[in-house]
Request: fold
Amino acid sequence: ASLKSTFKNDFLIGTALSIQQISGNEMAIAKWVPGQFNAITPENLMKAALIHPEWNRYNFEAADRFVAYGTRYNMKVNGHTLIWHSQLPFFIRRVKNADSLRHFFTEHIDTVVSRYRGKVYSWDVVNEALEEDGSLRRSIFLELLGENYIIEAFRLAQQADPGAELYYNDYNIEQPQKRAGAVALIKKIQAAGVRIDGVGIQGHWHANDVPLEKIEQSILAYAALGIKVMFTELDLTVLPNPWDSNTADVSASVNGKRAGMDPYPNGLPDSVQATLSRGYANLFRLFLKHRDKISRITFWGVNDAYSWLNNWPIRGRTNYPLLFDRQNQPKPAFFAVIGAKSKK
Ligand code: G3I
Reply:
């Protein structure tokens, strides 16, 4: 069974990948990925710090290979991400005035998007520009360029590649306050006469605590703006988050609270597999219900070995958030997702 064929009439199925995963010793992954997925997002390599390390120097090597890989296997490449307050190049720390930052901003978007014109299907133009209360995040962009920087980013991206789809991407924008901020932001972009094609709800949730109702309300609210809805960084952690009051005592018996630990050295217990399966199955049933509004579901990592959750919020803690295990074998959650389709 494959994800992409199961959902071929519903939505694209994507995964995040690093350059290591499609190079050298990891070539087996590179060949396996196109059997399951028809969309890819670079997990880090297109972020400004990596693709634009110095004022006048870009490093396109990894991104070129990544885009060529997607093209070769006929997978849609989603560029991630043009404007983000995090993973910025070091030189930006020395920028203190609006003119310099505007120069970087304009030139960066134009250079990167133009290079991949006609090859990158879509861009996460702006990432994580909102605070939890729905106001604009206090970033260097807001501080020096003012609140219209977001509209400007979309305008520049559209100029550089009129054929690419352009998205706003963020986490927790299924939560009512932040969602209201995202809806207002999208309306503002539209009111300025600038095109925005879709919104990406990242989807980093806890397997035990997937906010299904808020997700459904969000699908409806964003679709009502006339844009595509996507889930762009889906994973469901199975471990407690010490800073999250909702999940801090979930699996309290798990000792995985220290760095470098595997809380399940003997394998993931059936009960946890079942929780993960239930979380994913409920989500996919909801996605299928709204398949006319949802264009892509992308997982944030190809298998458990490559998940960022192995290093967050606790460094080196072994996590199990995806559909495939560390040997690329499908977990029960994979079959639960496939089953969500047939039991629809
Ligand atoms: O490549 C270096 C390596 O050379 C070095 O030895 C090592 C030591 O820490 O760091 C490596 O870089 C790490 C990089 O991932 C590649 O593994 C960075 O420290 C680490 O900060 C970086 O984390 C990435 C994170 O974004 C950065 O904020 C994660 O891989 C990536 O999954 C994560 O992705 C974000 C999305 O872009 C936006 N939404 C949230 C999502 C999860 O945080």
Q: What stands out?
A: The chain has one domain: 3-342. The mean pLDDT is 94. The longest strand covers residues 228-237. The pocket of G3I is lined by residues 43-44, 86-87, 127, 171, 202, 233, 308 (CB under 6 Å).
